[in-house]
UniProtKB/TrEMBL annotation:
Protein localization: Cell membrane
Annotated keywords: Cell membrane, Membrane, Transmembrane, Transmembrane helix, Transport
Region Disordered: start-end pairs: 1-22
Domain ABC transmembrane type-1: 87-445
Topology of the protein relative to the lipid bilayer: Multi-pass membrane protein
Organism: Streptomyces umbrinus
Family: Belongs to the binding-protein-dependent transport system permease family.
Protein name, UniProt field: Alpha-glucoside transport system permease protein
Annotated PANTHER family: BLL4140 PROTEIN, DIACETYLCHITOBIOSE UPTAKE SYSTEM PERMEASE PROTEIN DASB
Main location: membrane
Amino acid sequence: MTATLLKEASPPPAAPADHDRKRRARRRARVIALAFVFPALLLLGALVVYPVLFSVGRSFFDASGDRFVGGGNYTEMFRDPATLKAVRNTAIWVVIAPTLLTGLGLVLAVLVEKVRWATAFKLLLFMPMAVSFLAAGIIFRLAYDEDPEKGVLNAAAVSVHDTFKEASSYPTARARDGQGLTKAADGSYGTRATASPGDTVGLGLVGVRAEDLPGSARPAYPAATGKASADELRGVVYLDFTRGGGGEQGKVDRTESGLPEMRVEAVRDGAAVASGTTAADGSFRFQGLDPGSYTVRLPASNFAPPYEGVSWLGPALVTPAIIGAYLWIWTGFAMVLIGAGLAALPRDALEAARMDGANEWQIFRRITVPLLAPVLTVVFVTLVINVMKVFDLVYIIAPGPVQEDATVLATQMWLVSFGGGNNQGLGSALGVLLLLLVIPAMVFNVRRFRGSQR
């Protein structure tokens, strides 16, 4: 009786026609999906797969592409000093830039939560992401210019330097040949002949620009004709040049200007025994000198060239300078992503730690950072992939003479292939090397995304 009831209650088996209909529907759905995906797959194959396969194949041929060289390009790649320097610079980029950006983004994301205008602050920091690398490179090329009249960083550096240390009085001044002054190895000038207390010494210089003369400068003639007392050594430092011509070299003429604020020393037995600064008419006097012979010296500090700032784009600093430009662009990206992860943190854990007496530093170090570890890892790995491919900033910011000192794998690949090397076999090998370096980071990132979705 029970078996009969169960048999009557079970649904009738599906007809073969229903199975065929469902199978055809699934097949049609797959065909429609493939039709929609096919253009994207075709584009992906044309722009990604084919270039990768072609580059791999091209890397086994010589520069002309006619002769098969096997692994010769890969061997040459690691023998070339420029390529080794590119690998070294790329390693510096991979270690420094993502680390600084992740740390800076974390600090800013935590601090922004505590300011009133958080949205405006985030917008301000994220704004450089809207600037292309080309435009950013031009901006920082100008900012890093060594001329303080053009480069804003050197203008600031020179202003700070000149605030704490005075510039030299007459950087372009020099003595006439054969006019009684000799130049020492350290850049100072001294008199050939000796002088004694009671003498008056004239020190004529040329090469002083009109704009370098202080407004307080007065004619030197009255000081040059004055008489010294028996226990003093007097003299005058003057511009040995008469406007409009005329005058006599080595002699103070009536219209020639004194050189004020010039440091002067009286030297005996190689040591300075007295020093002073010239007055508005260029005069100086040393009183109370012991009897004997002295030479008068103008120290090199009077003629030192003005401070011109830092050579930001020199061989030593060009890579850190470019990394600084990269930080300016990508700091907002790291801050926004870490800030999104920070907003998703469980607030009850933070409040519980505060109630237990933990200070803000302990909360940040023991709770916030461990909970943000997945987000920090994703940001770091994403930035690693990005810096391995950096090209625009390096190529635009680094001047030609230091291009080799700043080169990375991406720029080296372009320079070898198209920038004058014309060796696309070696350039393809560099591209394959760059691809092999990027793939592990990409695989790691994909696995992290899949793990977070699960």
